[in-house]
Amino acid sequence: MKNIYLKALLVLCLFSSCEEAKFTVYTIIVKNKSNHNIQFFVARPGSEFLYPDTTLPTKKIGSPVIFPSLSGYVDSSIKWEKQYSKLPSDKMSIYIFDSDTLKKYDWEDVRLNYRILKRYDLTLQDLQSTDFYVNYTE
């Protein structure tokens, strides 16, 4: 009986294949071409407010600081094409903030006074044409 189990186990091992799990990441890169530190937020499906509503979220967003001449990114395991199909319009908003502003003011003040440096309202074609790069300049 043991012999049958061992043979069955051997057959299973020989005929089974282990393919590596394929995990693709889709990225939007924000390049800081200014002289000050910035942070950004992408209003994508699942966000509280989506374009054409450009209200900032009620809860403070967390994003890393992007130093001058460097880049930051946002990743997704879902293709951007699919994410765009879930939006109420054909545009997705990317908000750029001055890091010092986010340090100086509480989030409610940032929201109510719309203390952003710039907002990009981008179509999928806009992002595709730049290879999913967004260049922030002053």
UniProtKB/TrEMBL annotation:
It comes from the Bacteria. Keywords: Signal. Residues 1-21 form the signal peptide. The keyword Signal applies. This is Lipoprotein. It comes from Flavobacterium cheongpyeongense.
